[in-house]
Amino acid sequence: MPAAVVTISGAKINLPSGTEAIGPLTISNPTSGGAVTVLTTASGDNTVTVPASTYVGVVIVPPYGNTTALKLKGAGGDTGIVIHPSNPTLYSFPAGTANFILNAAGSGVAIEMNFF
User: Fold this and answer.
1) Does residue 93 register a pLDDT over 70?
2) What is the CATH number of the domain that holds 96?
3) For the whole model, what pTM was predicted?
4) Fewest C-beta in 10 Å: which of 8, 27, 64, 112?
5) Distance set, CA 23 to CA 8, 80, 94, 103 (Å)
6) Is 80 exceeded by the pLDDT of residue 1?
């Protein structure tokens, strides 16, 4: 399988001290190329199955303009962490992770999952 590499870089501008670089920060997976799936949410906990045990992360991409509240959870009883409803979220996890939960405050939101 081909490798996957996700790189994050950017800049914080207009700081009192000037501009500050972010990264580049890289997450590599030499054993898996990746997969793209779409989750259409049900209201409440949605179990997301990681398509391969060798994947080490996912970029979660909600639709532009989405306002439905979203939380990332490890288990059903977790409180979870709130993620932005319309900005992408990078979630890195150890190889062997079988699933995680995306909690949605409403149904019918099509969320792209880019696994690597």
Assistant:
1) yes
2) 2.60.120.320
3) 0.90
4) 64
5) 6, 27, 21, 30
6) no
